[in-house]
Design goal:
Number of helices: 9
Protein name: Phosphoglycolate phosphatase
Pfam family, one: HAD_2
CATH topology of the largest domain: Rossmann fold
Number of strands: 8
CATH superfamily of the largest domain: HAD superfamily/HAD-like
Structural class: alpha/beta
Oligomer: single chain
Organism: Silicimonas algicola
Radius of gyration: 17 Å
CATH class of the largest domain: Alpha Beta
GO molecular function, one term: protein tyrosine kinase activity
Distance between the termini: 9 Å
Helix content: 40-55%
Strand content: 5-15%
């Protein structure tokens, strides 16, 4: 099965909600938004924070992002866990002949530390995420960059993720997508995905069916 599988990180491979939310609460509190800090912040996990902070009405997203990064690097980065069944699913996909790539909205400077910490990094051919300055924050740009760099054919590739950004970005570059139901997205976000998976152990078969 000579195909490329691009995998999201937060909400797809790793349940990173505790560390991300605690860092968001800190950032929102110190930048003067205690009412938002006290709300449910799950919706902010996945999309680029510059987009989410702006959507929340924060006038200085850059300051909030800087505060978030301070707390995240200090305490939040590894306050997470790999979803049960993910390593086995990744191994099964790789054994079937597919190439695995990380494609995350998290800056790669952080993402690579996380995948190494949790033992996922050796399974990837390459790992892609935005730059810290926001370059390639939009996942469509990130996937286009990854395809150009790797030479992978989008028609023989698939994006797997939990949010609408994953589905929309894949469509933008001409690759199909699979949505996962165990992350932070909702059913309304998955329109356009070829299938919605409920468990990690469904990933290998779903990928195989796409390219049968």
């Amino acid at each position: 099965m000579s195909v490329a599988v691009f995998l999201d990180l937060d909400g797809t491979l790793v349940d990173s909600r505790p560390g991300i939310v605690s860092s968001l609460v800190y950032a929102l509190t110190v930048t003067g938004h205690p009412e938002l800090a006290a709300s449910d912040l799950t919706w902010m996990i996945g999309p680029p924070f510059v987009e989410s902070f702006a959507k929340a009405g924060i006038s200085d997203p850059a300051a909030a992002i800087e505060a978030y990064r301070v707390k995240y690097q200090e305490a939040g980065m590894y306050d997470a866990q790999v979803y049960a069944g993910i390593p086995e699913a990744m191994d099964a996909i790789g054994l079937a002949g597919a190439r695995l790539y990380l494609a995350t909205a998290k800056p790669h400077a952080y993402a690579k530390l996380i995948t190494a910490h949790f033992g996922l990094a050796p399974r990837f051919v390459a790992e892609y995420g935005p730059e810290l300055d926001g370059t390639r924050n939009w996942k469509g740009d990130l996937l286009a960059h990854a395809l150009a760099e790797t030479g992978e054919d989008p028609a023989r590739s698939v994006m797997i993720g939990d949010r609408h950004h994953d589905v929309a970005a894949a469509a933008e570059v001409g690759m199909p997508s699979l949505a996962v139901g165990w992350g932070y997205g909702t059913a309304a976000e998955w329109h356009g995905a070829r299938a919605v998976l409920e468990r990690p152990d469904q990933m290998p078969e779903a990928v195989a069916r796409l390219f049968a």
